[in-house]
């Protein structure tokens, strides 16, 4: 409910006010939420106020407009809400007494009630609302299950494996209301909360090669996986009449590599593939794999030695979109990979604060090969992208023998989670028990983050989609220090081609209809701002409890000035405006759009002062 309300408020689909009642025996404050039509004109001066509304308990003050609304000095319009601002209780009100901070009404506990009211207020009753409702229900059901079963999870330390960290995420995306939806689209059967998504058995199909677009050394790179696949038919003679007795059945004996392409398939995706692609031949073989945080990128055990992961389509909607693999990203990966070393050469290896940097600050998980169905409108349902495994990439860089890693890669999203007892994961792992220690950690993290990701933006007009699930933090296991990052996934990069061409002498090859080229440099700065500031730094500042005091944002501002000259276009773009764009998850869903984004305008957190400052509202 807190995530849904956050989106509704920030996307202006409801109106929200911060109400304080200083004259009551105990100063009370709460959040009043009503129809967006109540915003303009604002609340009247009537003492009792009674259109349909909700009251939300607050733990902290959201970002509000400086001036109170007309008629009332104790009521401020809310400009930006975060789930962390909210308490536990919510009421559907009958009457509200704004002077005395009292209301009558009933406690509600389901986000579906809030959604129903919000859609009524906005006059919405279309299919999109039903879709959101279903996905919200799915998210709710799966989140309840995840919380109830979190005790089954191992307690993690920095020594824990990278894949354990990937699979440790319980709370997930901080503001997406459908973040934990596991909504399977037909022809996939619907999923239950206990459906196994972490430890899976890959399946395989053979497809006539002329029907596939394949790029890179695809078969060669996946050969160890094909060789390791085990027959799932108890008597192998059933599927291969020519097999002689005692011969261990091999997947490779069942395909003709001269004319067929082998594609690994997520087991849950098999029904969709059978239904959509009559020309594929199912191979009765399987191989174990571990799923990463994204669910669709998998680490097959058989590829551990070669250090490769595979990204496979999964017709399941979680957060914004179906987790399939687009033609654009299958095309882009192997073509962009060889260009990246040049892009990364713009990074100053001493800028992160360490002059003895053993390794580059930023490593990029390459995508050396891919295959996808050619020219088919459902192509995104059958594809495979081969990608460097981040931990293996790290080990290769430092030439560490297997089993003796000196660095651990931890997916950034796992660090801003909370442990079962409510404590912050990042604080617990690094023993950050004082404000000074927290600020010091934040400073070194943000310094490295800017040193890693801003130079390609400045010199090549190139931004990675470095949000918390695509970024892995590299921790030195001897010293416990954060020493750099790995970034993966090119699906959401943003490139300004003129700038790139000037720096490189060539373009990034992309297919027509791509959404990864920028019309202007501002679009590149926007992607960098969204992924680094709104997604990564915001969550880290809050996980360190440095948001409401403003101390965290002061550190971020200092580090930004340190990283980019104040006169640079990027600095100006990030700092010039008191408000910035924010992706509108709910509005986007209402419009049924997945690739084209809808934005709302919210305060620029880089200007945040502190909770107590009445003029904090994004205006310094
Ligand atoms: C996609 O990429 C190419 C660069 O290869 C660019 O010229 C083109 O305009 C891009 N956008 C679309 C929508 O096709």
UniProtKB/TrEMBL annotation:
Keyword hit for Membrane: no
GO molecular function, one term: acid-amino acid ligase activity
Superkingdom assignment: Eukaryota
Keywords noted in UniProt: Signal
Signal sequence annotation: 1-16
S-adenosyl-L-methionine is among the record's keywords: no
Aerobactin siderophore biosynthesis IucA/IucC-like C-terminal domain sequence ranges: 441-547
Segments forming domain Aerobactin siderophore biosynthesis IucA/IucC N-terminal: 162-415
GO biological process, one term: siderophore biosynthetic process
Name used for this protein in its record: IucC family-domain-containing protein
